[in-house]
Design brief:
Blueprint lengths: L2 H7 L18 E3 L2 H10 L6 E4 L8 H13 L2 E4 L13 H14 L3 E5 L2 E4 L2 E7 L5 H18 L4 E3 L14 H12 L2 E5 H11 L3 H7 L5 E6 L1 E7 L2 E10 L3 H14 L4 E3 L8 H29 L1
Parallel strand pairs: 1-2, 1-12, 2-3, 3-4, 4-7, 7-8, 8-9, 9-12
Antiparallel strand pairs: 5-6, 10-11
Bound molecules: fe (ii) ion.
């Protein structure tokens, strides 16, 4: 069944492009507890705020009230890290119901999760583990995404993972897997450019070729972050630690992503070794400059055509 047929049968809108509420051209930042009061008081310029859903499952209390206060001034995105979309046994419905309860209150502009798994035999692990790129894993994650979207009554975005190892017996590569997930479920892609760079280094593939293999028209958001370098047996392993500024090769890849996919709403993720808010906003402004340059370049080209 193609996406068009799916649109006809679903009682909610499937992904059809980036949300208009995020089209200001201003880049978003992650909402992290040490910055929340300063954001509420100072209302710094940021395109949107992205909150980790699981941090707000307890409805009430200071963090939740801060999220609701932020919601008054910014579009909010809910980014989940614990749904385990790739779980063969299906998603945990208690977790999903908590997510739905939160979404019903917050009414986020968009919701996202990961192409990964983190739960098996009822045991959850605090990590985003890679999926084998097989038909069996594809069927499982599509089944779960459809269940999640039907429960939430909306399309979600799914994020490409960062990888440190590869399974034997892969039946497709990651861009193919992602394209099939989106075709089958009608969700969109949260393209994490840093994750592509990290995986490309660790697994030895061409990051630009990965970008070129992602179909156009499916990207609803871009993530940028800084990785950590671990030396393991004399080799550098890149870890998706969100603990540094965005590195130059990732900015280069971001520029290529904007050229391919257009001016996509972008978010800076910085979770560990958190800087002061002004430094995080500087990083977002740097992304704004890349996006403005793309729009200017496109405007010049259009003027030439006219
Ligand atoms: Fe990300």
């Amino acid at each position: 069944m193609n996406t068009q047929d799916k649109k006809a049968e679903k009682p909610f809108a499937l992904f059809s492009g980036p949300d208009a509420a995020l089209s200001s051209g201003r880049t978003g930042i992650g909402l992290r507890a040490p910055h929340a009061a300063q954001i509420i008081a100072g209302k710094p310029e940021a395109g949107f705020l992205e909150a980790h859903s699981e941090n707000y499952f307890c409805i009430g209390g200071v963090p939740f009230e801060q999220l609701m206060a932020c919601r008054e001034d910014y579009p909010v995105s809910l980014h989940g890290v614990g749904l385990s979309l790739g779980a063969a046994e299906g998603v945990d419905d208690a977790h999903l119901q908590k997510l739905k309860a939160l979404a019903d209150i917050v009414q986020p502009v968009l919701m996202s999760e990961h192409v990964s798994w983190s739960r098996a035999a009822g045991v959850a692990v605090p990590d985003l583990l890679p999926l084998p790129m097989t038909q069996e894993a594809l069927a499982a994650i599509c089944r779960n995404i459809e269940h999640v979207q039907e429960t939430l009554g909306r399309a979600i975005l799914v994020e490409n993972p960062s990888s440190y190892m590869e399974f034997e017996g892969m039946e497709m590569n990651e861009p193919e897997m992602i394209a099939r997930i989106i075709e089958r479920t009608g969700c969109g892609l949260l393209l994490d450019v840093n994750n592509i760079y990290v995986s490309a280094h660790n697994l030895g593939f061409d990051a630009k070729a990965y970008l070129d293999a992602i179909p156009q028209g499916i990207v609803g958001e871009i993530h940028l972050a800084g990785y950590h370098v671990n030396e393991v047996a004399g080799d550098d392993v890149f870890i998706d630690a969100h603990n540094n500024p965005v590195y130059d090769p990732v900015w280069d890849l971001y520029e290529a992503a904007l050229a391919r996919f257009g001016d996509i709403p972008t978010l800076i993720e910085w979770d560990s070794d958190l800087p002061v808010l002004s430094r995080l906003l500087e990083e977002a402004q740097k992304a704004d400059e890349y996006r403005a340059a793309l729009r200017k370049d496109k405007g010049t080209k259009n003027a030439r055509v006219a």
